[in-house]
Amino acid sequence: MTPAANPGSRPVSTKTSFGGFDREAFEWFARLERDDSKSYFTTTRERFKTHVRGALDAMLDELANTFGGQVKMFRQHRDVRFSADKSSYKAITYGTEIPSTGAGLYAQLSARGLYAGTGEYRLARDQLERYRDALLDERAGPPLAQAARAAEQAGLELAGETLSTTPSGYPREHPRINSCDARR
Question: What pTM value is reported for the model?
Answer without folding.
Answer: 0.68
